[in-house]
Amino acid sequence: MSAGASGIDRLVVVGASLAGMRAVEAARADGFDGEIVLIGDEEHLPYDRPPLSKQLLDEALDVPWFHTETHYRDDLGVELQLGAPAVGIDPERQEIITVDRAVPYDAAVIATGARPRALPGISGLADVTTLRTVDDARRVRGALDEGRRLLIIGGGFIGAEVASAARRRSLPVTVIEASPYPLERALGREMGKALSAMHARSGVDLRIGTSVVELERHGDEIVAAMLSDRSTVACDFVLVSVGAIPNTAWLRESGVALAPDGGVVCDRFLESSLPGVYAAGDIAYFPNSVTGRHGRIEHWTSANEQGALAARNAVGHEKREYSTVPYVWSDWYGNRIQFVGRISDQAPVVVSGAIDESRFIALYRDDDRVVGAVSVNEPGRIMKERRRIAQGASWSEALAAHAAPAH
């Protein structure tokens, strides 16, 4: 597909992220030979984020860059505008407005991701950080190298991965979780309870149903955290990991439709309410025909898929619908946790292994359909569950697959 054939001569991608990088790659792979501009708010080249809370905290690894600057410039023919955050869109003039210029577009892909949710009175203080960027990861790695006493506010995937890295160094770690169990909203109470046992087995002090009220300091140094249950936790470095917010505040005056959670409202082709402007990654709020629900998916796999499809739809003649079975993975204390699909109101059923042996598969049902699955230390089997969910398998079919003898 050439630029002239599609009537699109210039594609602008906002967000030098996984989704943004996949967008420029896919456009070129499909034969688009017009101009491509990649805009990013960080001065860094695009890099992979999952290693930031995994390998980069443990090993002396280089930053996980996707490509070199030469590859973007010479092989992909991409103009990089890094360190230049977008501040608006002018749909009448078809321009992306950055802090220092206006960038014309014929088609655009918005992939500005999400930013960590802040905690009033805590976020932004010295020795308090989030973990979203490579600079954040370097700061956390430095704290671990120094043997700091770590307090993690939020028991989600990232918080647990950082706790795992700290415990591999035998450092003291306390995890504060406001919900009755970590990951209760993501995986349901039963699986949240099951996974939270990994913290205790690994020597982590998990405090549930409570929150941080105040950080106590001696001079410039944190020495303790006071909790809502009136207990006190000794610490000298704090990671705030309480979710993320779509990076869409810069779009509020552009006329683009935003969902109540701040996501960019898209159709099934990932096109926003502004003609020719598509969204991908954490910000895309779209109708998913597989799950039957509208929403955003803040997972690596979806950003990878959406970035490519949004670009192809933006510069091509034929548009393709995006639908998916969500997939996320995490590594805790030497255990591989994987989740596909969605949870339901009904309790999950363990169909293979046993929870107390830290090796199992559990399925979620909605009426007579299997809609989700979570596994621990079964890395080779979870994708079969993802395929079954995508195919609309019935609950009885899913149970029968696990009842059949292995070959």
From TrEMBL:
This is FAD-dependent oxidoreductase. The keyword Flavoprotein applies. Residues 327-402 form the Reductase C-terminal domain. Its cofactor is FAD. The keyword Glycosyltransferase does not apply. Residues 10-307 form the FAD/NAD(P)-binding domain. It comes from Microbacterium aurantiacum. Keywords: FAD, Flavoprotein, Oxidoreductase. It comes from the Bacteria.
